[in-house]
Amino acid sequence: MKVSRENQITGIEKVVPTVCASHCGGSCLLKVHVKDGAITRIETDDGEEPQLRACWRGRAYRQRVYAPDRVRYPMRRTGSRGEGRFERISWSEALDTVASELKRVRGTYGPASIILSQMAGDIAFLNQFGPMPRLLNMTGGYTGVWGITSFGQGVSASLYTYGSLLTGNNRDDLMNSKLMILWGWNPACTICGTNTCWYLAQAREAGARIVAIDPKHTDTVATFADQWIPIRPGTDAAMIIAMAYVTIMEKLYDEDFLTTYTVGFDSFRDYVLGIEDGVPKTPSWAEEITGVPSRAIAELAREYATIKPAALMAGIAPGRTAYGEQYHRAAMTLAAMTGNIGIHGGDAAARAWESVFPGYPYPVDPMTEIFPGLVGAVLNPVEEGLGAADGFFREPQVHRANLADAILKGKSGGYFTDYKMLYIAHSNDVTQLPNINTLARALRSLEFVVVQEQFMTPTAKFADILLPVSTFMERNDVTYGVGTAFIGAMNRVIEPLWESKSPLEIATALAERMGIEGFLDREEPQILEDFVKRNNVPDYAAFREQGTYRYKLLEPYIAFQTEIENPLNNPFPTASGRIEIYSQQLADANKPGLPPIPKYIESWESVNDPVVKRYPLQLITTHFKRRTLSQFDSIPWLRELEEQAVMISKEDAHSRGINDGDMVRVFNDRGQMVIPASVTERIMPGVVDVPHGAWYEPDERGVDRGGCANVLVGNGISPSGGFAYNTGLVEVERL
Ligand code: SF4
User: Fold this and answer.
1) d(CA 207, CA 144)
2) What phi and psi values does residue 674 have, to the nearest 5 degrees?
3) Region label for 419, one of left (φ > 0), alpha (ψ between -120 and 50) or beta (otherwise)
4) 400 falls in which pLDDT band (50, 70, 90)?
5) Does any ligand 1 atom lie closer than 6 A to the CB of residue 196?
6) Is residue 474 over pLDDT 70?
7) pLDDT in tens, 26-80
8) Cα-atom radius of gyration of the chain, to the nearest Å?
9) Is the C-beta atom of 28 inside 6 A of ligand 1?
């Protein structure tokens, strides 16, 4: 890497390396040109391979730093909640007000009446999930929210099957695959590990065959796939189970692998062959459900069972559906049946931490260090002595999808208490959570709302006190590589703009106001240096100067390689020590919708739901090139990339008299929006896509004009706690 030479001041411009980790599943090197304390342009890695090249969002970050809609100063609301009218106040006044409201609400109603809602923002050690839970725990506790919005079903399915969340290989191992099945996976837009597409391209050039299964002809399909198989949303488990049927009937499965490493294959086989329920799960059975021709299902099953090694890259989108756990568990089972786990060129087909930390297991576990508020390393007095854990849930937490219901109903709705105050930290809930119209109503009912944010988001407009947050360009932190083994130095590139502060600074200042001693046991620079050194980085100063420290690996890291190569000494971290196709844990739990073996379970709002007469189109809400979740939505350069529109097939559009570019109404019983139509052959008939993450922008009649998909998405929760953003029915009509 040539960064250290370029980092010297040349004339009056210097180049500072830092790492973007904008929760997209990437972590990329940025070389930021700074002149007179201002960012002038941003380049990316152009050194040795593998480069850590930034995408268009990282390259456009200058516009984000200087965006006119950044929150610049502490603000107090002057209009009604949601209206977005504020007046500037001092930090002193803002902190005094927040501290006094925290004390008042806790003293009057108890600490559980304070809800903290926070999401990822940047994937960073210091300024992510840690500071606010620590502060609130040191002042009596709070009610947390649970539920992983991105890949909850993948997480639970991985724990049930493998007993682990470290299920991913390093990305360069894709080059060892002879066949890749990209199932609902679109890294050309969503990145999912810096340079994933670089490795896909090289694998393809080396002769790998790539098959993509997706309701959409995505950019990944267009760029890499030899074959595209469109499939009805929410039916993926049925196709995988039918592939298992072919694999069993034609005796193509790896019996030795199943005998040595798994438990419960016999039960699964009985279900697949129809011995259990009288319904053989043939390709014809699956064709009826999925819309995929039976011949295509059978051919893919034969290919996956006979071309070795093969990687079933089970993306998280098909899991973001009702009963999406079954898709993930079925994919892992098929990977086991074909012996593709723990080997180069294969894949465990799990997608547990797919978009966060796949691959190399770092010396310091990011799950316990970076996610202390989520995983439970921080003790919350409100939770002490209460309820058993169920996945990531601890009593008395509120599921994120039920946030509005909990606020509106409290104890009368069966919740732990009545909720009076909401503290939202880097979480654009009024866009990202389902059933937005109800959430907006709930937020208006609270006694007090604090939001700390970088931007005047739809959520920020609901704040009573709004606190300005710095970007990662304005603070120091540390991040991890995703799919490539490195630690990234998030270097402060410029001084914090206006009066913005980092999340850690805000929590520390509140701690001082509230008389907490020992909130930090060391100064921030020391905390960061200690963390980096614990990750076996030998030279901290060089790390900061170069922007990354890369671990030297002799070969790509493979999940479960040791378990497969030496099973006697390395059991899987499950109760049985094996891959659990049959989960005794699930059998004991006896929970509806969570059978002990993977099964196809028809989702709510499927094409067989009676409501289909009024709302005949299946809605998917895919991730979009110009955003990371809801981040970057207002950035002009990125808005030029692609318009927020509802993608609709030519067939469905023409039957409704809709032409490309027409303004249309997309609606169901939960809400409605007005956006342009993108009429295309790149989506299958019967399915429409409103890309996820566009900011909620209701007009005076409550009709969303921003294209916020979550006005249409219901708050149904999949049995293990995951969200169902890709389950729902809508209608589209021309205006
Ligand atoms: S947005 Fe993601 S992929 Fe793009 S530069 Fe940042 S970390 Fe990399």
Assistant:
1) 49
2) -120, 115
3) beta
4) very high
5) no
6) yes
7) 899 999 999 999 999 999 999 888 899 999 999 999 999 999 999 999 999 999 9
8) 25
9) yes
Predicted local distance difference test score (pLDDT) of residue 356: 61
pLDDT of residue 363: 86
| Residue range 114-168, pLDDT digits in tens | 999 998 788 888 888 888 988 998 889 999 998 888 888 999 999 999 998 889 9
- Ligand 1 site, residue 628, Cβ cutoff 6 A: yes
Scanning the structure block, which residue is given the tokens 């210097």?
14
CA separation for the pair 84, 333 (Å, rounded)? 50
Amino acid at 323: Y
> Got the DSSP string for 645-675?
-EEEEHHHHHHTT--TT-EEEEE-SS-EEEE
**Spatial CA neighbour of 354 closest among 332, 378, 376:** 332
Distance in angstroms (rounded) separating the CA atoms of residues 75 and 489: 32
143-146 sheet: strands from edge to edge: 86-88, 75-77, 465-468, 448-453, 421-425, 114-118, 143-146, 398-399
Residue nearest to atom 3 of ligand 1 (CA): 26
Helix (H, G, I), strand (E, B) or coil at 690: coil
Rounded to the nearest angstrom, the distance between the alpha carbon of 724 and the centre of ligand 1 is 25
Are residues 733 and 665 in contact, defined by beta-carbon separation less than 8 angstroms? yes
* Cβ proximity of 445 and 408 under 8 Å: yes
Q: What is the pLDDT of residue 715?
A: 87
> So what's the pLDDT on residue 382?
83
CA 362 to chain centre: 20
* Cα of 11 from ligand 1 centre, angstroms: 29
Which bin fits 184, alpha (ψ -120 to 50), beta or left (φ > 0)?
Answer: left
E strands of 566-716, at which residues?
A: 579-580, 617-620, 646-649, 663-667, 672-680, 687-689
Q: What is the dihedral of CA 625, 626, 630, 635, to 10 degrees?
A: 180
CA of 413 to the centre of ligand 1 (A): 41
- Tokens (6 digits) for 645: 């529109």
- Can you give the pLDDT at residue 521? 81
Residue 248 CA to ligand 1 center (angstroms) comes to 42
Q: How many CA atoms lie within 13 A of 670 on its CB side?
A: 23
User: What is the tens place of the pLDDT at every residue in 406-421?
Assistant: 999 999 999 999 999 9
